[in-house]
Amino acid sequence: MHLIDRLIEQIIEKRNPTVVGLDTRLEYVPDHVVERCSGASPFEVAASAIFEFNKAIIDAVYEHIPAVKIQVAYYELYGPPGMEAFRLTAQYAKSKGLIVIGDIKRNDIGSTAEAYASAYLGETPLKNGRMPAFDLDFVTVNPYLGTDGVMPFIQACKEYNKGIFVLVKTSNPSSGEFQDLPVEGKRLYNKVAEKVVEWGKELMGTKGYSHIGAVIGATYPRQLEELRGEMPNTYFLIPGYGAQGGSVQDVMGGFDANGLGAVINASRSVICAYRRSPWKEKFSPKSFADAARAEVLHMKEEIEAALSHNGIKPW
Ligand SMILES: O=c1ccn([C@@H]2O[C@H](COP(=O)(O)O)[C@@H](O)[C@H]2O)c(=O)[nH]1
């Protein structure tokens, strides 16, 4: 089955377009988890604690969500053991039936982009054959280098039934500095969106959406709505909900008339739910995973209610 169709089926089955972001820093991991972990170096202890934390979160939420997004920066932070925790987290999430999005925001000249694509989506060529290194489902891709830098990722999507989300309009405060620059009567992000649509035509699933998606921030609701109109066959990965201030109403413009077309990522608001109101009053640090589940279920209800309120009959 096409990966993008599987994502859509998972969203419909779970009745939830929420993606949990595993942006796990050591300071988010409660002491009782860290105390159970050992290792030959502080990085190994940290990586082991992060993996234990991630497993508990995944166990608590996997029945309710279609996918997780793993932010590689928080694993690089702990050196090689951190990257092993990244790989193990992806593998564990997959074993629970989840789709895994690697937030790696990579790109380079074509030959180097090919190495990134092989590492994260495809297989690494070895002396006697090939082997997957990280074997993620989707990765985020930076389009700044142009078509020849993106093509190796698209090639890997074709060969291995994978997908990418290309940065189109990011959620951060300075995103307009380059992305909103006027180009040939449009904004730069509109021009990138046109390219994403063109690239996506080569890799359509059977449910009207392409394997080539776009990242668009919840913090720019007007642009989200505008781009939904311009990119009817492009799935959106929408970060910026929760900790960055994006609200459920802000993400509504990303959905199509069937409540599809968008997955909403929430990282800190879910994995740190046990440290934040209202959940910190109800859950102790020992119950951090239950707090994450409560936040996911709350988010799911909020999205479903907002879709109905906007006249969209979800799923
Ligand atoms: O435009 C973008 C692209 C990616 N991100 C990433 O999403 C999460 C957001 O985390 P929260 O804790 O929910 O704010 C994080 O991994 C970012 O690197 C983004 O925020 N905006």
Automatic annotation (TrEMBL):
InterPro entries: Aldolase_TIM, OMPdecase_AS, OMPdecase_type-2, OMPdeCOase_dom, RibuloseP-bd_barrel. Its EC number is 4.1.1.23. SUPFAM superfamilies: Ribulose-phoshate binding barrel. It is an enzyme of class 4 (lyase). It holds the Pfam family OMPdecase. It catalyses: orotidine 5'-phosphate + H(+) = UMP + CO2. GO terms for molecular function: orotidine-5'-phosphate decarboxylase activity. CDD domains: OMP_decarboxylase_like (cd04725). SMART domains: OMPdecase. The active site is at 105 (proton donor). Keywords: Decarboxylase, Lyase, Pyrimidine biosynthesis. The keyword Lyase applies. Residues 17-283 form the Orotidine 5'-phosphate decarboxylase domain. Coiled coil: none annotated. Belongs to the OMP decarboxylase family. Type 2 subfamily. This is Orotidine 5'-phosphate decarboxylase. It comes from Caldicoprobacter faecalis. The gene is pyrF.
